[in-house]
Input
Amino acid sequence: MTDHPAQSFVRTDLVPERPAPITTTGFFAFLRTRLLNSPGNVLLTVVGVVLLWFIIVPTIRFLLVDAVWEGTDRTSCLAADAGQSIGACWPFVQAKITQFIYGFYPEPERWRVNLTFLLAAVLLLPLLVPRLPAKGLNAGVFFIAFPVVAFFLLHGGGVSGFGVKWTAGFLSSFADGLGNVGQQLATSGEGSGVGPVLQLTGHAVAWIGDVVNFLAWPLVRLRDWLQNSDQPVWYDFACTAVSVSLLLFLLNGAFRTGWRTLLTSLMAFLCAGAVMAVMHLDRGGLPVVDTRLWGGLLVTLVVSVTGIVSSIPVGIALALGRRATIPLIRIFSVAFIEFWRGVPLITVLFFATYMLPLFLPGDFTVDGLVRVLIGIALFAGAYNAEVIRGGLAAIPRGQAEAANALGLSYWKTTGLIVMPQALRHVIPGLVNSFIALFKDTSLVSIVALFDLLGSLRATFADPTWATPTTLFTGFAFTGIIYFVFCFGMSRYSLFVEHRLNPDRQS
Output
């Protein structure tokens, strides 16, 4: 064996310095690796920079650099008087900002609009923050109580009755309608070949009307007694609260499990009574402001928010109905969806505003704004139905089969297992529909409702601010408002998607 000198595995001198590695982070690394890493990307980057230069620079010059910020009339926004190129005429926006927000809403009553906006923000913001507690109570107040309060704040007026009066009036009108239809059928059958059939049908319909009238007689007598009392509204309110609370108590297990429902119902009616007392709804309430005076951002938010909120349950019902096993429900859902998707929104608005009153009884009227809201809700609901149906189709059948194996009913399976997963999958599609609906509110101007764009166009008729840049300034301002709302909905939807994604990183 030969002896080898022992070798040390510990270095006794420093490693020679090497050049620094190429930076892969930072702004210059982004340019090198993403924008300038190939001839094609270099060309696209140059073209993009040129386009941005020709778009962004003139926009900034018009909106900020060359803009006029002070003035009292059109003379301050004229190039001849300024001696230089004139950009946006912001004094015009400052002078017309109240009209953009309130439309023609009476100035002494605009505090009601401000209060409505404040209540909406106070109730909506906690609902959007995931970590805050009492989501169920907050949602109930926002979606059920707030619309009623907002209606009486914005429209004004009071209530002359409550559940007893409304139910008795509906049943009486329904019975009278059946009686009139029955008489017309019996009369039209005289002297014709199918006369006996029509007469028999007419008598049957009239008899049903008499039965409804007989069943409603105690309620009508109670209504008449309440109206003749010294406090008809409050007595009617008390009767309605007791009746509804007892009914819910019995339907939810009575003495075994219905106490919580009973207390919840009584607390809800107590809060409603407090609101009625504060707003003096039993004594006429606030002064009535006709919806034809509403306008601006107020109408845009009312139409869009009402359409978005009300179209969700309509879409869910239609989506479930289209997947139903009962042929009649499925056929009705398919026909409803295809009809409303097959006509443009302008046609829906025109029909709801001008044609629908022709089909209503002479003594029955519906406010023009309410007709528009109903039409938009049904229109948007038909589109949302197909979006939700796509989410339902993406859920494996095994989810429902496993729930059925555990003994869950159809409604519990749908409400607790299938529908939450389906809605999570269709958030992008639903938010896309919401954004489109928010922008489509501008179409209500065709039926004489002044939304934000309608109020803007109305301001152009003012000769005090007639300048070459007024038109562009107004549309730029409203465009910024639309962008803020739509961009906010888009970013919040991304936040919700990330939060509900089970595969997201913690």
